Batch of 4 targets.
Target 1
Amino acid sequence: MADEEQGPAPEQAQEQPQPAAEATAAAEVRPAARPRPGQAPAVPAGQREPPKPEAEALAADLAQAWEGIAFEQRFNFSDLEVTIAPQDVLEACRRCKGDSRLSFDWLMCLSGVDCETHFEVVYHLYSYRDHRRLTIRARLEDRDNPAVASVVSVWKGADWHEREAAEMFGIDFPGHPNLTPLLLEEGVEERPLLKSQPLVPIFADRPGVVQQPEGVP
Amino acid sequence: MITERRLDTVDMHINVGPQHPATHGVFRMVLRVDGERIVDCVPYIGYLHRGFEKLAENEEFQEVIIHLDRTDYIAQFNNEFCYLMAVEKLLGVKPPERAEYARIILAELNRIVSHLMFYGAFGGDAGAITPFLYAFRERERLQRLFESVSGARLMHFYFRAGGLKEDLPEGFLEEVRRILPVLKQGIDECDTLLTENEVFLSRTVGIGAISAQEAIDYGCTGPILRACGVREDVRRSDPYSLYPTLDFDVPVGKKGDTFDRYLVRVQEMRESIRIVEQCLDRIPEGPFRTPIPRYPHYRVDPGEVYVHTENPRGDYGIYLISRGGVQPFRVKLRSPCFCNLMALPAMLRDAYVADAVMVLGSLDIVLGEVDR
Amino acid sequence: MIGVLKGLVQTWKTHWRKPVTVQYPDERLPLQPRYMGFPGLIWDQAIGEPFCTGCQVCMRYCPTQCMYVTMQDNPKQAAGESKRRKIVETFTIDISRCISCAICVEVCNFDAIEMTHAHERAGYYPDVVPDLPQLLKMSEDFRAQRGQKPARETRDVL
């Protein structure tokens, strides 16, 4: 432990400016985390690995199968990632599952992300036939009424994932058969995973014991 | 003379849980039954929700591991493994070979521990107490090994970005080598105790079957999916770490029923032993951690990554977003039980009420991971 | 029927095995050397003060927020006996909340805290909140148990 331990090093004071918003996720090169003087700018983390041949083949298939759907693509950790508009999500997902060139039969994960300026719903797909992965990212620019069509009709496994995203972020999924709260207790109005929602520290509520002073995270 | 009269019947609702030993935690389901047959099942979860994802956003990358141990609290090493692969991908470091092998050994032993837990609890669900004692006798050997490695029996907090917390203790590998034959024998004993038992067979064979198509549609993974005959294992199909170099089989079932799920898990334990044996032969001496600047308060490059690994319960995925800095921006946990549990209503349709407990037990849910 | 009989033969064989369990309060299984119980504070015997300077880093990183630490000026530094300018004033750990995760050991810059083997600490409320002298004693007992000298030389062992 002692060998790498540096203690409170002085250079920790220079905070990295947080990238405020990621405009056009496809082309943006975000600032590297640890720029050191005299060092070449680091490659973004996702570009360190070259794209897999399967991912490149998938990009070609996708361009054909997704005719009429506008999307931006980039390679992230050797896998393909596409960004689409929320109104195209249902059609894109239908083709992803139904089209014989793609046949993504498994929705691995569906996650909502609060990017502070907008919301994102990220679909991680997997094809058991071809053993390849695809990430679909839907950008919900409308922060007040975020909504994206439900994909439960495509994959039944999206059901609880969407319910979770709905209660945690307030994203609406029109077309979902039963969009009721899943994990939180009834009557919770807050959206816990929003970045604007602070994490309330647990304080010792017993008298006289381990009282935390103010300002301690 | 008897004339048949039509009786007016109503569906009855039966509430099971949340505090019920057969639900393996705090899980509640409402069964709608018509006589003895289940018409519909509505699962309710969230009783153990601790807000892991929110907590993780407010803590450093290193501290998140502590909470990960507490998601799937029967397969802790596997959880840590998955998360740290995500962090290492973003950091751009690779753990040294010794650490990789140590991780695989511990993860596979943890898989055996988890499956033994399933075996014991499943026997209990079927009404047999003896398997529980046999499983826990074998499990205890491994728990003591884990204690000697990490200092904790359950919440290990042992894997670190770039390797391990500290080197494997002296004599650990010899101890594993000594225990493996004993363990093998113990698993065989468990096997003879239950697998051919007619009472057990009558309670499991053909119960809660689900087709492969449906299982994939619901996002079932792990032993549930493999029991349906889909030879799908993340260690094989999307290999990570050093698994491509290791030789092991992926056992599959045929019918996708409760018994096949049980059998797949028993066979998986044997495969895990095979993997550990190979790792023991190959594990080299050397460093146990790649140095990372400012460890343990390291900064992680901005980016996002989705990593999934094969946990005992299925495909465990971590979607990690970093915006640079010491804290993750978003951690989404794709927990296998969460997705397997979604298929429960489909499995229970037209089953008997008494089988509901068996089907739920065969899913091997850990509520800490379902609710996060 | 045969399957049931096979199982019965198995249990009959097991009947003659030596039991693996122990009678807990009378006998105890040995703890592993790395066992993590509750944390204790290490005493610096060379100077006669704790290693802890009360920097509160453990308090900040504690996931259950079970610690409370305050710092004071070190009187021994003024007297020229110690190099530490600051020293711990109070240190309490609510071990009913402690989860023995050892993050405090990991983040400590002075290697002043360690995981002892103390784990049988059930009790009523004020008893489960050791203060500074009790924490120091926990570590000292632990080291005496393991036959280690509670001195500076043993620091690098941990």
Note: The helical segments of chain C are 2-15, 57-61, 75-78, 103-107, 132-145.
Target 2
Amino acid sequence: MVAAVMSAAAPGTARRRTWLTNVNAWLLLLPALVLLAAFTHYPILATLYHSFFSLGRSGPAEFVGLDNYTYMLEDDVFWQVLRNNLFFALATVPTSIALALLMAVWVDRKIAGRTFLRLAFFTPTVLPMIAVANIWLFFYTPDYGLLDQFLKSLGFSGHNWLGDPSTVMNCIAVMVVWKEAGFFMIFYLAALQTIPPELKEAAMVEGASRWYFFRRVTLPLLMPTTLFISINALINSFKLVDQLVIMTKGGPNNASSLLLYYIYEVAFTFWDTTYAATLTVTLITILAAVALTKFVYLDRRIHYQ
Amino acid sequence: MKVNTKSLLTAGLMTVMSLGASVAHAVDLTMYYPVAVGGPVTKIIDDMVQRFQKENPDIKVEAVYAGNYTDTMTKAMTAMKGGQPPQLSVLFSTDLFTLMDEKAIVPIDEIAGADGKAWLESFYPAFMENGRVEGKTWSVPFQRSTIVLYYNKDAFKEAGLDPEKPPTTWAEMAEMSKKLVKKDASGNVSRWGVEIPSTGYGYWMLQALAIENGQKLMNEAGNKVFFNEKKSVEALQYWVDLAAKDGVMPKGAIEWGTLRTDFLEGKTAMMWHTTGNLTAVKEGAKFDFGVAMLPAKERRGSPTGGGNFYVFKSATPEQQKAAVTFIRWMTAPERSAEWSIKTGYVAVTPAAYETQAMKDYVKGFPQAVVARDQLEHAVAELSVHDNGRIYKIVNDSVQAAVTGTQSPQEALDSAQKQSERVLSRYK
Amino acid sequence: MRQNHPSVETVAAWVLALLWLLPLAYSLWSAFHPAEYATRFDLTAPLTLDNFARAWRQAPFARYYLNTALLVTMVLAGQIVIATLAAYAFARFRFVGRDVLFALVLVQLMIMPDVLIVENYRVISWLNLLDTIPAIALPYMASAFGTFLLRQAFKSVPNELVEAARVEGASSFGVLWRVFVPLGKTTYIAFGLVSVSYHWNNFLWPLIVTNSVESRPLTVGLAVFGAPETGVDWSVITAATVMTMAPLLLAFLLFQRQFVQSFMRAGIR
């Protein structure tokens, strides 16, 4: 159909042409727009709408104003998962970025076994989180898990890593850093390759040390990449909850639960869909805030590309 | 679109024999069921379903394993909300109120036919308790259990304890556990005295302790709970003290799923677990082990547990009838005995214990009837409206207490407060 | 000079790399050895495929593979067609509402279908598609990311090529097919690899919308299979885990360079 309409874009009056161009463009966009409307725009609006209604389990749903929001603000678990999520972001984002940068700098140089190193760092990225969680779960198993066995061989005592609220988050964060650092390394690698080698040669001639060059030239040039990765990592920390299903189910006592996992639980285990909608509005707001920063910055880059 | 994809999928799969063998005019049933214990449970179910279909060629049952109890309930509800409910499912016997509130199920006595009443009378009354509300029977017991104490006889001997005398009281269990703890040269514990699992089914263990301490956790109407009563708090305190004060149990949350492995690997001398795990323990144990009723404080006791069959309202009368046929087949004495032997779950009717197979089995393995014998002390499992949410609240509190984040009093006060907020809608 | 002997840095890089491979190496160890060696390391331990055989017997992994294969194919095919058309419109047409529409597309970049599980579930259920593979695929079919990448690629196509094709009498669609699509090849590969690895690994949404073996992808099948309650023994779970990762991992090892470059390309926007 599209083809037929487009081949009709034969010479005509200028106005007719504009009109045809419009029709063509809209037809080309139609499939994408329909799907986006159905699975992104409508759901966002519907989430907002439902958050103002009662559940209506025994009777029709009623408009309840901000009741669901008041309930949310009084819900200790909500505050806890929000805190957890912030902690999780703070624990994973800077660490994985720092590691990614280190990896990229290494791999970018003529280091021995460069291909192997790059492979090793990047491999976790292509593995399913579910599979990764399964493997790490056994690392952390008390007593006969790999970590405890290792510690015991050094004479330390074992620890219930995932069963202790004070360690569970860190354990999961370590795993996520392991999985993500290699992914971010790629972005840095791409950026490093755009730095002209002459710059470095010039610096060498000037007698600058490598560290000095890295600090004063490389790092500033990588700033946009760093910002870009930070934002991506931040968004990821809000939408990545697969590991919880396998490792902790959000426990013990919600110590490892994250906002999206809590939404999943409220919606599909407790079937409180209006409260889930309310929580989702919060999540959307957070993501939108993060993403706006991203777009302000992205637009600038697109501009000079 | 859906039909197309599905037929496309099936066309591509030559190994799906079930579809090739479908019989004209067969009644199709979909059933979700959970697995919460070790062993090849899905195989056992599949095998039973196959034999049922052979005997009843006009009924086709698709049994779908959907994870643990919570996952299965989630799946059944998800499917129902999505307009494709299963015709029957094995779900927590305690999900009854939730399923009633969702108007999801039909009472069994209304569809069981003329001799339905006599049939429903044939089950152990303790297992029927959770299924009877408003004068109707809403579910049929299937994979039912009580909590039992598994203990390692070799460890008992090694610690100088009589392997034929498991602890009978709380105090004894704590004392014996202290003797059973083993430490290596550097002072690290290499074997714990006892472990009570606190993930997944923490509410169930707490209820056992509360019952033993003479405290009920809920009322019969399922809209009132007694979590922060003095005796409930004492129950949780005892549990917490096993780790914090007596040092006989590891600190932190203990995994329901891996506890059996801990026991089999000799990492703990005793464990509290469902009798449904008995056969898996028997298969895996490289040492002599015993099974005992849970120790008493004021009294003996354990909540019943496990899953019942439910039939969904949205099924056609024909399907409902077929579902009852299937359920009757699955719970018939021979099958109930077979199921009990293969898993460790309590057979649901006294008649099952009169079968030759069961008698022979018990003769060689007396541990198999401990859970049944405990039924006389058993109490209905915690069952209230919005059950999933209440379970989560109690589980969270139990975990808060065993990990030392909150004191038992604080944890249960908070559980009581949150539960009352949820249950206020059902008064 | 620095390269002649291993510097501290080289050693550090290698240590980190080995550490990074450790979890994977460990899962392979435990998958290919009998259960009693799962936590004991002994070079003389016998190798076995028994764990794989048992995992394969205990759950319908063949079906899961098929489901996942169908899923990623369906998503990728849909995404490529839809994103190509949309990107073409954005890159090469001036039309009313272009900027607004582009902004509307970009909304999906910040609020991914992954977080709209509650309402998307309603939509899918309203379409009567629950528990089907299209249900898993549909929310991801229109990819803002793909549209964005292709738009960038199409924008950089020189006008002369377009004009030349026009002179030869190609229609707009012909131009798209004969000029833009071939020139976008690297972008397609890049996007394809990213998309396939994303959807091969995706979990939460498929978990929600699938109920039966007929529609479960590998990840969900693995999660259901490995649930700790079932007490399936560890070696068998790792074998299943390895099976789930294997196709993607092998593809990655074989086409390492393409993978890395694709992810790079997809990353620089």
Note: Chain C has two domains: 8-48, 59-267.
Target 3
Amino acid sequence: MKKPLILCVLFISILTIFFPYFSKDMRSRPLFEKLGYTPHGKFYRAILGEFRWFMGDYLSFKSIIYYGGNVDKIKQGKFKDVEFYNLFETIQTSILLNPYNEDAYYFAQAAFTWNIGHAKDVNRLLKYVAKYRTWDFLPPFFIGFNYAYFLKDYDKAAVYYKKASAISHSELFTNLAARYFYEGGRTELGISYLKMMIKITRKKSVKKVYEIRLKALDAIYKIEQAIKKYEHKYHKKPQSIKELLNAGFLDEIPKDPYGGKFYIDKKGKVQTTSKLTFVKRKG
Amino acid sequence: MALIKLTIKHLIFDRIFLVLASFVLLFAFIPVFSYFSMRQLQEISITTSLTLNSFILLLMTLFGGTLVMWRDIERKYTYTVLSYPITRTNFILSKFFSLIIILFVITIINFAASIVVIHISASLYKSTLPILWLNIFAAFFMEFLKYTLLLGFIFLFASFSTSFFTPVFSTIAVFIAGNASQGIYDYIMKGSNELSHFSKLAAKLVYYVLPNFSSFDLISYAAYSLPIHIQSIVYTSVYFLLYLGAVLSLSIAVFNKRDFS
């Protein structure tokens, strides 16, 4: 009786000493091992039977957790350090397994459009989801937004905004689209979109990301409005934001929440040195 | 009837069976699991409840079926029972029905546990979809039918096999093939213009012979409150009765011919 007990205690003690080394090794493994390769959705779907629905949900959780763990790298614009390819494949498989899965398409829209520039691929996924979630206005709304904001295909955007309006029985989307098409307010469209996303987002961490971007777009919008007024009055483009300040069209230079500085480029467009990603802090 | 009672009693007190039944406790973790969701806690809890039920029923079917058939034969228990005035048909049917009763009771317990956990998850974040309890019950019941059919296969394989592994692994193979048959058939038929007449016929034959387990899957209807067509339920139920009848008759026929001496 005593011998096995002594052995057990010995093993536990060695394991306790060994575990930090083991854990360190796990942390140092290549990133793909953490998210992993996901077999193609069609293959999965064929063999999983009714377990496919759960597996679809599980894969979207896995992606969300992985993304959450790398959010600092994403904020700092270190996109190469994040396995975006595997992440997209995982979400794609998740959607193939459970096309009704709201988390999966919602996450795809949040993670792969703004900084990564995969609006076209996301739209492909969203169109697939929209075929199933016929009661949900969000997929056509997202598709329309992506076409307008990222892909600049306004005709297609109008088609999907109309679909979103028809499903939600709300004119909001068609009004939004109309305002965008006729007034050319890209920033305004982004602001409306973000306000809506903040309203319907549950996760605080995701909400925070949207709120910061909204702050930045609000600041850009403020400067754009000041430029318009300046042009109207002086019939020329301002060279810098300081000119707007001196002319009294701005009370103060708006702050970039990402830590960068706003400036007016040669084409007269408002830009920021942060490129709307968090500027790496020194030290 | 006495044999049914005795089999149920034996199974309930079996250690492996008790361990499997204790998986019901996992329902308590569903609200925690669904909390990871961004916007669909209710839908996740329904999907997970049905998946857990399916998983428990799968293990129960595989191990329960093997325990009552293979172990009894292995321990010469079957030989003793059959020396009493009881037909082999009655013997196999009694064993089968006692397991069906257990599967049904477990399904009901799981459904009751699901009602609680779905309510908890739904109260944490309001879904845009209503909870259709009838859909959820239908999905649970269809899972029960599915595993009853799978149990029929265990009995079929156990009726002629002398090893423990043949019925278990053959049934797992049938389970996988039965889940995949509809998807693969649809895929093949999509590109059917390029296929020869013989290949199409072969695909159709395999599709008809294999059990179609996808027809019992109502998880998406339950989780996303989609309308269930009564016609589909009726067709699936008729399919179930016919297929089970065929599998059980074959099992009885093989078992009747088996030499226990």
Note: The longest helix of chain B spans residues 88-124.
Target 4
Amino acid sequence: MSNHSDAAVEHVGGTTQSFITVWVALLALTGVEVFLAYEQLPTLIMLTALMGLSVIKAALIIGYFMHLKFEKFSLFLTLFPMLVLCILLMMIFMPDSIRAMIMRVQ
Amino acid sequence: MADAEAIAVQSVWRGGEHPYSIGSKKLGMWLFIISDALTFSALLMAYTYVRLSTPDWPKPFIFNPSIIFSTIMTVCLLSSSLTMVMAVHSMNHGNRGATVKWILATMVFGLGFVGLHLTEWLKLIYTEHVTIFSNEWGVPLFGGTFFALTGLHMTHVIIGVIYLGIIAFAVGRGKFKYEDVEVSGLYWHFVDLVWMFIFPLVYLMSARI
């Protein structure tokens, strides 16, 4: 097992410049999010826009900071499609929240 | 044995019995992160459900200090991710001294995040009178969901700071390898990643305009 670990650690992903570029991009996206929060947008549109930006930020962090971009594609295929599917399945409850809100208003 | 290794390298999985070409510690951390991501996803979904189904959801977060504080907290975590990735980068080049310094910088950012977050909590509890079960706006689920979500995340940050402290101490004493630092980095980046969803969903969606 130790041989396996030693062999596996020789792994380099990204450069200092690329890390700083990603960091600046993440800060800029955070600024856009704060700006959007003070725009008078409907709740659902605001929610969609903010979550879209968050997904982009998450992809940058996973790809560059967590080095997944530089790992074997099989690791990504094993981990993420299942995660995304489970999260999408959780969204099955969301239409019910709108029904609950309409019932409360009535 | 050599033939077996040669076959393993040539196979489409490039590694034979190690199909992902990563160490067991790293794979274990990835599996933990995915399971923890599901936990946070469920909590975020529950929060969103309650938020959308409550028409008079409170918006207690004024620009100064709440949104400014939470934005600085976000910058703290993003900067800590940069310092952590630099720690991993330094360890990969065999520079243990620089690795320890970068990890300590990461811990400082993490502690800064916790300090600001606790300040925000105390303001909500003592100024706005928000508790887990009640608040002045008559929406008790606000406090319940807010403290559950941010509390679990803050617990992860505190555990992360302790974890990084142990790693920094061991690396400084010449123990642990590159993979150990990289695995701790994965955990820390995940903590940062979760905040990227909590910040807009909890704070920005409830900003008082």
Note: Chain A has two domains: 1-71, 72-106.
